[in-house]
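Pipeline run #58 for the internal structure catalog. This entry was flagged by the ingest filter as a single-chain record with no existing model, so it goes straight to prediction. Upstream metadata was stripped on purpose; only the residue string is passed forward. Reviewer on rotation: M.T. Logging verbosity set to normal.
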Amino acid sequence: MQYRRLGSSELSVSEISLGSWLTYGVGVERARAAACVDKAFDLGINFIDTANVYGRGAAETFLGEVLEGRPRDSYILATKVFFPMSDTDRGLSRAQIEKQLDASLRRLRTDHVDLYQCHRYDDSAPLEETMEALSAAVRAGKTRYIGFSEWPADKIEAALAIPRIEAFVSSQPQYSMLWRAPEKEIIPLCAANGISQIVWSPLAQGVLSGKYLPGAPLPQGSRATSDEMGGWMDRLLKTEVLEAVQRLKPLAAEAGLTLSQFALAWVLREPNVASAIVGASRPEQLEENAAASGAVVDPDLFAEAERILAEAGV
């Protein structure tokens, strides 16, 4: 496993990190989920990402249980705040940040997280209030660093302009060969301001593994067949997308990689990406994905993959 510095922080994070959206505490049976966490540590994955809203606290509770007993300095723990936790609890006001962070720490069974992230931008809360509350959390020792997920460029710039606040060190956008939106504004802006990307859905919810075949039934036990985990995949399961993805398999084979590894290596080719978050329902999935770290791929193969996807209108 290779490691990269997370923005301007002192954190060195594994290039492949373990996520828990739709999986732990929700869609994956507990013993298998615990086996995945154990495998992550075996593979050198030191970065674990979650959020209070994942399972309305269930993912954090699960992680708190399985991480208890491990040395706190043996892993880097990130969580998030914004989405509704009740009919009245949501957003990035000072009161909500304080309340939700304390609740996350209780569920995670720790006195601090390493990274506390704004899960989305909150138009209903003054930005200065949000940034002051996050900065207070850093100064109180409840989080070491702060970040954001899916913030627009103008809001990032506005936050950077506020004086006497703690600096953001991370951005968490969706990014993959099938979703390249961050390249236009977010990555250049962040790279210029000491902010790294921690990308979610680098395998496009498993579509870039190549396991979903055009015109074929969905594989049994796959994310797409799960009521809990498959509800966001319609765009990705279109025939033209699946056909284009199948055309990438020979390129991955030429690189000596599986298609999943090739897709992760493509994400990691970007220097501003510190880590690619993967979900796993089985330990062997993590083993395959972790092998993408440090992979050296001919840039011509990546260029051909991009051409194939662009030609298909993906």
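catalog note: Residues 94-108 form the longest helix (15 residues).
catalog note: DSSP finds eleven helices and ten strands in the chain.
status: ready for reviewer M.T.
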